[in-house]
Amino acid sequence: MIQRITLIGAGNLATSLGKAFQKAGLDIVQVYSRTRESASVLASKFGCSYTNKAHEIDLSADLVLLAIKDDAIPGLLEKFDCRRARIAHTAGSVPLELLEKYSDHCGVFYPVQTFSKSRDVNFSDIPVCLEANSSEMLGELKTVAVRISRDVREISSAERKVLHLAAVFACNFVNHFYYLGDKLLSEYGLPFNLLIPLIRETASKITEISPYDAQTGPAMRYDETILNKHLKMLEKRPELTKIYSFVTESIFLAHKKEHE
Fold first, then answer.
1. Which of 232, 203, 233, 228 is nearest to 218 (CA)?
2. What does pTM read for this prediction?
3. What is the per-residue pLDDT across 59-112, written as a single tens digit (0 to 9) for each?
4. How far apart are CA 207 and CA 143, in angstroms?
5. Strands (DSSP E) along the chain, which ranges?
6. What letter does residue 172 receive in the DSSP assignment?
7. I need a labelling partner for 68 at 20 to 30 A (CA). Which of 37, 87, 136, 257 fits?
């Protein structure tokens, strides 16, 4: 049974997971980060020890959970012997087989959500996707996952890779468009909160209908009058013109049959 967790990382995901684990009655026994300051700050929230030295990582914990950048995982694991430790990573695009090079008891604990240190999230509705190199390890990870989430699923490395790519489109790219919209509004002294109701409805309705059916706007209708007006407004912003034109074409082609 996993009760004591060593948390590797002190960023957005590590912070959110640590809070969720502690709230669920699990013990964070140590925080590791590359910088002593960030490790100290997060450890203070959990009342546990901390370190920025790989050889001091507490491998006696029931689970060593890596919540760090994908490309930092192998470099860190090469610094200590974790063959007998239970190790799991939280990365969307890192295959399980990478951990199998370093540990006999390894898995993946991947929550499908965006995290920020400044915001607390309700983990109960967040899908937690698991994978492990043995049924025993999978069972152990499940005992942790069900304590923080009602939606626990087993998916393969290949499936998780696709899921992560889809999440980049659905979250990271969409948020960048919020940023671009905010910049356009601010140039004219308009507040971003004018778009908040629109954003909420857009996100809400796809819980009831498909994204395809939810699509609206001049690109789907290929309303050339409006499209040309918009492009005229962007003529001194070639980077935005390129994005606008490319996305408009993508939307139109997705709905082209409706206009034939």
1. 228
2. 0.92
3. 999 999 999 999 999 999 999 898 999 999 999 999 999 999 999 999 999 999
4. 28
5. 4-8, 27-32, 49-51, 63-66, 86-89, 105-111, 128-132, 152-154
6. I
7. 136
